[in-house]
Amino acid sequence: MPFVDGGGRFIVEWLERKLLEHGHEVERIYLPFVEDPRDMFAQMVAYRMIDLTESCDRLIAFRPPSYMLRHPYKILWFIHHFRFYYDLWNSEYRPVPDSVAGRAIRDTVFAADNATLGEARHIFTNSQTVSNRLRQFNGIDSEVLYPPLLDPERFHSDGYGDEIVCVSRIEHHKRQHLLIEALSHTKTPVKLRLR
Fold it and tell me: How are beta strands 59-61 and 74-78 bridged, if at all?
């Protein structure tokens, strides 16, 4: 989403910086995508029509549907699926009903993912949870490659204080509401900071 930064975008920017520091040429590309089921397949086809074979030596793709881009040396640092069709399917976040038409959309997402994920020369994920999802839903093995802190010297611990900090986009499925509810059960004065 334009002008919205999040974890996936940070990983891309950090990797770009580290590759440049090690003497590589890098071009970062953000392609827009709207996850509306009425528009997503046309967009996925458009991504698939982009062939970057002559444009670069390597393609490193992160989020869906970037891995649908064509390149003979495609590497994935897989952040997550279209989660609403995968692990969030049986939840209130499902964008389509669990009907014949809804399951057809979900099946098409699975088929497109399976066809294009399998083209990658190597698949890394940002966590064991994401690797487990790839294995469970797509039968694809991957290697966990945890994102590093960009400037680790900026981080330190002065011990525990009276504040809980949660750094994440504020969305219901990120579950910040559970932290707020938990505050009513605390026995010591504690502050919650949502960032």
Answer: parallel
